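Reopening this one. Same input as before:
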Amino acid sequence: MIEVPAAALTLPLFIKRLDFLSIGTNDLIQYTLAIDRVDHEVAHLYNPLHPAVLYLLATTIAAGAKANIPVAVCGEVAGDVKLTRLLLGLGLREFSMHPAQLLAVKQEILNSDLSLIEPQVKKILRIYEPTAIAEAVDRLRAL
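Same output, byte for byte:
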């Protein structure tokens, strides 16, 4: 489980010893941003589209692909249909979510064209303003 930034950042040191990776997005986001999502005073700062979070997701998924190791994403991000195309564009092919979210995410995947999404996601990874990232991710849904 990749749930803390240190695990994602040091993945090249131990990836050869692994059979698969699972990114636990709820904890990864919380620990990356030092935000307790259940603390009402700071929960509004919890942001899965923060550039640091996207960097950790992108590099972990890429490292898994390079090592030919399957990577899954679990947590709220995996079941958020607004983020499905972003995750596909990052190279993710395994999603783990609550069964109630399966049909909507599956429909989004079936309606996605990777040849259009992947170049846009590469551009998104070069954006450092969270608001601009959110706008670009919203535009992915129109592709």
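So the earlier flakiness isn't reproducible anymore. For the record, The helical segments are 5-9, 11-14, 25-33, 51-66, 84-89, 102-110, 114-124, 130-140.
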